[in-house]
Amino acid sequence: MAAPLVLVVLAAVTVRAALFRSSLAAFIAERVEVASPLNAWKRVVEGLALLDLGVSPYSGAIFHETPLIIYLFHFLIEYAELVFMVTDVLTAVALYLAIQDFNKVVFKKQKLLIELDKYAPDVAELIQTPLEMHYIPLKVALFYLLNPYSVMSCVAKSTCAINNSVIAFFILATIKGSAFLSAVFLALATYQSLYPLTLFAPALLYLLQRQFIPIKLKSKSFWLYTMQYASLYLCSLVVIICLSFFLLNSWDFIPSVYGFILSVPDLTPNIGLFWYFFAEMFEHFSLFFVCVFQINVFFYTIPLAIKLKEHPVFFMFVQIAIISIFKSYPTVGDVALYMAFLPVWSHLYRFLRNIFILSCVLIFCSFLFPVLWHLWIYAGSANSNFYYAITLTFNIGQILLISDYFYAFLRREYYLTHGLHLTRQDGTEAMLVLK
Amino acid sequence: VCTSRFWFNYRHVANTLSVYRSVKRLGIPDSHIVLMLADDMACNPRNPKPATVFSHKNMELNVYGDDVEVDYRSYEVTVENFLRVLTGRIPPSTPRSKRLLSDDRSNILIYMTGHGGNGFLKFQDSEEITNVELADAFEQMWQKRRYNELLFIIDTCQGASMYERFYSPNIMALASSQVGEDSLSHQPDLGIGVHLMDRYTFYVLEFLEEIHPASQTNMNDLFQVCPKSLCVSTPGHRTDLFQRDPRNVLITDFFGSVRKVEITAETVALDRGLAAFESKFPEDELATEPLKYAEQLPVAQIIHQKPKQKDWHPPGGFILGLWALIIMVFFKTYGIKHMKHVF
């Protein structure tokens, strides 16, 4: 499978290189959907220029990257385009390897459950076969590399690509079963943008499953392993933050990075939900609503953990999607990451109810974003409500997509254990509803 | 300070600009002048001769010129801003051109014109400054040591009432009319359609045109400008607060920027410690010959200048720590046995 992967990688690199050389690069780099205040390239350049002038880059409100990114780009700034292309390729390769391993795990588990007779007799058509699963890793890499969102994100040189690659390596390490590496990469991802903290739960569940430790609250081995993983994660996070202190000998980066992510002071329009609310809100309510909005991101972890404790990788997918919808400064690069996982659940296609409408909504909104931006900012014949309507529609489309997949997944699981043809008490055909 | 709006108060702007012009001509730079004009006559749509403000009906003198620098214009000319400029209580964001940066050695000339009455001066047709407020502002200036000597000239109706209440030392005041009298305008220009100047300022301008930076004319001559026969009103002055005799006060003390220069014939020994300081530098570091202009930056060097070297480098401890961590993670994951490949 290496050859098709290499071909895909080459095609992706060609597309990105062609776009880098064209005039579209400058246009894409300043689109607000692609570059947010957290990951825009010109802010990185500004921060490094401020450093050369002897001023701390965190002294203004421009630079919100972590010190490790400063260190990375201090030496690589002349090769920035190459760095971003390599990052995208690394992300795709990491996802490829992760999904390859995951398929093996899925297949093993399926075999075990069939042998244990946990499945109903008439569900033969729902079982995944190695034949149909053979091309899934390649499709995942393809989906990530050739997704217009990730191409645009790479051409704009948004550091979202680096975040995506750290998360991809984290997923690879988790699926391979190495708790140490997974904790390290999760700490790096959390260090860069705060929200991957919620990925701690699915990673923990997966690793527990892999060690065959049952998830009972009274079990000692469960708590022991949880403590081990949590301490690995927290220690690596603390080590990384302390190391960042030594780059500039100041703790300035903490309010500039984490304070900025949490308190959302910059209300430039983006594809997220925060900007319009906070632009219209009175000052004395803003603290309350910032807390509400931020809790919203972290809130779904526990209920999803309870419901999806047998299926941690799907949980991870849903959690990444929730992060990229509800985070304070989302960009299309974040959307590209969870969309790369969609081929893994392609066997759910027959249970998806609204996939046509949702894909139309997402595609149309993506095209309408620049149109309405132009109408608002340049032509002056629209206003922020128009752009926010498209933002809302895009996010509703994403949320409905995720909940559609969630419903389809749970429905398939139910059918697997209870049989395809469900009947009610009186013998008529029954229908599964997500309550 | 010109405090009147509207086209028919053209003469007040012309008054102010005439004094501004004289003061600039006699050497005071714009950085030392705060000019407040409540309306723009030169670019007023009713001005048939745009970009000009004339002081005489034969259009002899365009007092607007090329380099008028107005510091407070239009609606910024308010009583509050005026008092803030005088007392120095200005918000920190105010630019330098809008501040009166005077100290205890500064001689200040304040010229105000507009519509006034017994004890007040009207600002912008909407508010007034009273003589009590003005006197208190000058007292604040005195207490903050913001002036050495102050000359206050006012050309309004009943102008003398404005200086009645002064009580701070070193203030000399002139006014165009006494209490109960009106200051009259000089002559209208039928082409422009309004009166161009007030009488008092017109004759003061005529007087000032004769002054040059070296002239020895004193204040007593200024007091004689515009007698009742020419001005119709009786100009007044007040010198009781002033410590020097007006006979000894030169016009250029207030209207011009004339520095006192003394040429001394004897040498002055500077601090002897300075010589020891200078000898610390070895001789060869000092340039022996001045560089010629062309040699200072050769053209080739300019053309082939490399991009600026990066000045900032991450500290050594950070790099060491980071790579130590990376290596530790690598060996923890892949085992110690790979160490033998490194060595």
TrEMBL record, chain A:
The chain crosses the membrane at residues 68-99, 166-187, 193-209, 230-251, 257-278, 285-306, 351-373, 385-407. GO terms for biological process: attachment of GPI anchor to protein; GPI anchor biosynthetic process. Keywords: Endoplasmic reticulum, GPI-anchor biosynthesis, Membrane, Signal, Transmembrane, Transmembrane helix. Residues 1-17 form the signal peptide. It is a multi-pass membrane protein. It is found in: Endoplasmic reticulum membrane. Pathway: Glycolipid biosynthesis; glycosylphosphatidylinositol-anchor biosynthesis. GO terms for cellular component: GPI-anchor transamidase complex. The keyword Thylakoid does not apply. Its main location: endoplasmic reticulum. Pfam families: PIG-U. Belongs to the PIGU family. This is PIGU protein.
UniProtKB/TrEMBL annotation, chain B:
GO terms for molecular function: GPI-anchor transamidase activity. GO terms for biological process: attachment of GPI anchor to protein; GPI anchor biosynthetic process; proteolysis. GO terms for cellular component: GPI-anchor transamidase complex. The chain crosses the membrane at residues 312-331. InterPro entries: GPI_transamidase, Peptidase_C13. Gene3D superfamilies: 3.40.50.1460. Signal peptide: none annotated. Keywords: GPI-anchor biosynthesis, Membrane, Signal, Transmembrane, Transmembrane helix. It holds the Pfam family Peptidase_C13. The active site is at residues 115, 157. Pathway: Glycolipid biosynthesis; glycosylphosphatidylinositol-anchor biosynthesis. PANTHER family: GPI-ANCHOR TRANSAMIDASE (PTHR48067:SF1). Belongs to the peptidase C13 family. Heteropentamer. Part of the GPI-anchor transamidase complex, consisting of PIGK, PIGT, PIGS, PIGU and GAA1. Interacts with GPAA1. Interacts with PIGT; this interaction, via a disulfide link, stabilizes the expression of GAA1 and PIGK and links them to PIGS. This is GPI-anchor transamidase. It comes from Onychorhynchus coronatus (Royal flycatcher).
